[in-house]
C-alpha cells in the first residue's frame, strides 16, 4: 500500500469516528513541527502514515516522536504514527486506526460517533 492509499484508509476511519480531518496539515507547536497526513485541529487528533517514498523517515525524528509523546501524555493532542512496515495492508491499517480511536474513546478524549 502506498502513501496515498494508506492515507485514504486512515481518513475514512478517522472521519467515520466523527473527526473533521484536514489533509496535509502543517502542525507547528514548539518542538512538534511537521506536516501531518491528516489532523482535526479543533479536536486535536490526527494521523501520520510513515512511508519511505514520502520521505517521512527524514521528518519523523526521535526528537519529534519524543515531543509528540510528551504532548499526548499531557492530553494536548493525539497523533497516530503508523509505519508502513507495521501496517502494510488495508486490514492491518484499519485495525490500527480503530484501536487508536477506541483507546481515545475509552480515555474520554473522543466521543462515540
User: Topology as H/E string?
Assistant: HEEEHHEH
The rounded Rg comes to 13 Å
Biggest beta-sheet profile: 4 strands, mixed
| Number of spatially distinct domains | 1
Mean pLDDT: 94
Structure description:
By secondary structure, this protein is α+β, with helices and mostly antiparallel strands. It has a single domain (3-106), classed as Endonuclease, Chain A, CATH 3.40.960. It is built from 4 helices and 4 strands, in the order αβββααβα. The chain has a 4-stranded mixed sheet with strand order 1-2-3-4. Strand 1 (22-29) and strand 2 (32-40) form a beta hairpin. The longest helix is centred in the last third of the chain and has 17 residues, at 90-106.
Which features would summarize this protein structure in a list?
42% helix; alpha+beta; 4 strands; 4-stranded mixed sheet; Endonuclease, Chain A; 4 helices; 113 residues
Topology (elements, then pairings):
Layout: H1 3-16, E1 22-29, E2 32-40, E3 45-50, H2 56-59, H3 62-73, E4 78-83, H4 90-106
Parallel strand pairs: 3-4
Antiparallel strand pairs: 1-2, 2-3
Helix pairs in contact: 1-4
Give a summary of the structure in a few sentences.
The chain has about 110 residues and is an alpha+beta fold. The chain has helices spanning about 5-15, 55-60, 60-75, 90-105, and strands at about 20-30, 30-40, 45-50, 80-85.
